[in-house]
């Protein structure tokens, strides 16, 4: 069996068991409903499934166990790193695109600008080898173009965009550059001394890509309507999100987060489906923004 088939089978098993515990036969029955899985001959013996479980634990750090009383397999421990999860998810998307070729209404994609992903391989090479880069950058606000010479530090995803985090050689300040605004990228042969900047630490309390604006992380409590709250529960706004109350009237979450502009815009985007309970300063800011919006009408 090919490596591709094995990876597809691992992905299918993980996806099924993340839904609910299943017996060996239930797993096979679910796989048999997938035409692509039949074409790829993903149906296997129980002995092969046991080997798959060992491989999944080794590759994805997802431990699968079986309940002896029900004869059902379940995910016991899931510590899959985000890199592995995204690779697996992208593998599933690519496979879905391949299956849908020739069926125009099967997969419907959002219309959006390109993400500048053609720069990623070169930027990663420059980051890993401490190489200066140069490029023309188109500003969001006024469309003006400027030439930049930057010490690249990391790539960060935020709100369906990829950004380069780097130190601008002009003023030695850490800045963020959207990849889709980068043009004429040149990777220099000139090396620089690695910058002591911990991206994960610096952005830990940020909502998106805005950072270094002076806002300290604070506790924020938001009250959502039941319908919106269930959605937020399934797709958290921030890694610090904690459920603190759920009843038939509202769902409340707490966050430890910097109340930057992009976080405030996110709150405003939920309209009457959310209310800021704490802190009072953020509550007043959102109230003022909503009042200003109403006055525009």
TrEMBL record:
InterPro entries: CBASS_pafABC_assoc_protein, WCX_dom, WYL_dom. Residues 217-294 form the WCX domain. It comes from the Bacteria. Residues 119-185 form the WYL domain. PANTHER family: PTHR34580, SLL5097 PROTEIN. This is WYL domain-containing protein. The lineage of its organism: Bacteria, Pseudomonadati, Bacteroidota, Flavobacteriia, Flavobacteriales.
């Amino acid at each position: 069996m090919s490596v591709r088939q094995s990876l597809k089978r691992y992905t299918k098993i993980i996806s099924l068991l993340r839904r609910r515990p299943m017996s060996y036969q239930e797993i096979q029955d679910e796989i048999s409903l997938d035409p692509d899985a039949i074409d790829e001959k993903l149906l296997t013996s129980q002995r092969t499934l046991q080997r798959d479980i060992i491989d999944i634990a080794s590759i994805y750090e997802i431990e699968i166990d079986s309940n002896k009383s029900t004869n059902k397999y379940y995910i016991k421990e899931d510590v899959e790193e985000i890199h592995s999860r995204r690779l697996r998810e992208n593998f599933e998307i690519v496979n879905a695109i391949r299956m849908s070729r020739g069926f125009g209404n099967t997969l419907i994609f959002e219309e959006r600008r390109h993400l500048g992903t053609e720069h990623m391989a070169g930027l990663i090479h420059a980051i890993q080898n401490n190489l200066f880069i140069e490029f023309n950058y188109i500003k969001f606000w006024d469309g003006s173009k400027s030439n930049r010479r930057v010490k690249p530090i990391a790539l960060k995803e935020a709100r369906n965009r990829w950004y380069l985090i780097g130190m601008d050689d002009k003023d030695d300040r850490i800045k963020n550059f959207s990849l889709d605004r980068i043009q004429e990228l040149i990777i220099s042969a000139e090396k620089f001394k690695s910058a002591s900047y911990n991206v994960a630490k610096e952005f830990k309390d940020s909502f998106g890509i805005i950072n270094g604006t002076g806002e300290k992380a604070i506790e924020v409590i938001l009250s959502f309507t039941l319908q919106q709250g269930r959605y937020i529960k399934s797709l958290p706004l921030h890694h610090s999100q904690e459920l603190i109350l759920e009843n038939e009237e509202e769902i409340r979450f707490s966050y430890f987060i910097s109340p930057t502009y992009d976080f405030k815009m996110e709150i405003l985007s939920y309209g009457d489906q959310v209310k800021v309970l704490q802190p009072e300063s953020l509550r007043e800011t959102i109230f003022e923004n909503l009042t200003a919006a109403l006055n525009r009408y």
